Amino acid sequence: MAEARAVVHGNTHHDKVADVCAAKLDWSLVVGIVRMYEMPLPSNPKDFYQVDMILQDSQGDRIQCSIPKPMFCFYKTLLKEFGIYNMRDFIVQTPGRGIRTTSHRFKLTFYQKTSVQRLSNQPFPFSPFRLTPFAGVAAMKEGRQFHLIDCLGHVVGKEDVIDMVTRNGEASKRMAVYLEDLEGNKMKCTLFGEELIGQFQFYLQREHVDPVVMVAQLFKPNFYLEETSIQSTFNSSRIMFNPDYPEVVQFRERLLALGDIATQGIADVPTQSQNSVSVELAGGTMKVETIESVLNMNVVCSRHNIACN
């Protein structure tokens, strides 16, 4: 069995997140909590079945970690976002299919032997963001990117809010926001759900000084019509405006140095016309709003021989 490498903090050896595998349970990690959020029950969205965390070590590597609800009561007063901890002993599992919160090939789960100690002295500089440049996002093509990323940009445009219906038949909303980097590259960022859209609208209604710099944390790359954009996912995604973190402060200072470009207002981008389509599934009929959703659904229908009307 290959022995995992270790990193030294003080006089204690700890494992690297990159080395975590299913070969053992007694991993010892020194990590910061990038994000912590509840996973709601499908049958009752007001309740949750587990708490998920994104952990990051001194090397910048991330891994997903879950705490079952019955165990969370023992940790809820100790665990806080952006805190740094020594965590020991986990169940190591393989993530399920689909989009993951990190690129790590394993995930962690707390169990009866897991121990947690908050570190009062910060053992390494910790930032909750691991930013992907716009050029990096543009290079992510369909089938090559399955984990969530962080992006940073100057808000230069927005579209109107659009009502939509989710795959579960629930009413929701979507809104497109346009971000620009320091080189003038633009990227579309789609917000789903009333909570994120409400946060965006509330911030714009407040008195603020331009420029508005937004961090899109844990967003999904989306390849569509030969272009890559980012979009929020439920539960894990978050947006922040002009947060006081070094990389954001540096971005804003460099943006202000550009002069007039930084003080341009947020433009209203015309919203594309909408259509609707009903998709007949085994469980009933689902109505999908917006042209983009219709085109995506037509692809799904053709692949699975489903009738679209």
From TrEMBL:
Pfam families: DUF223 (PF02721). CDD domains: RPA1_DBD_A_like (cd04480), RPA1_DBD_B_like (cd04481). Residues 14-117 form the Replication protein A 70 kDa DNA-binding subunit B/D first OB fold domain. InterPro entries: NA-bd_OB-fold, RFA1B/D_OB_1st. This is Replication protein A 70 kDa DNA-binding subunit B/D first OB fold domain-containing protein.
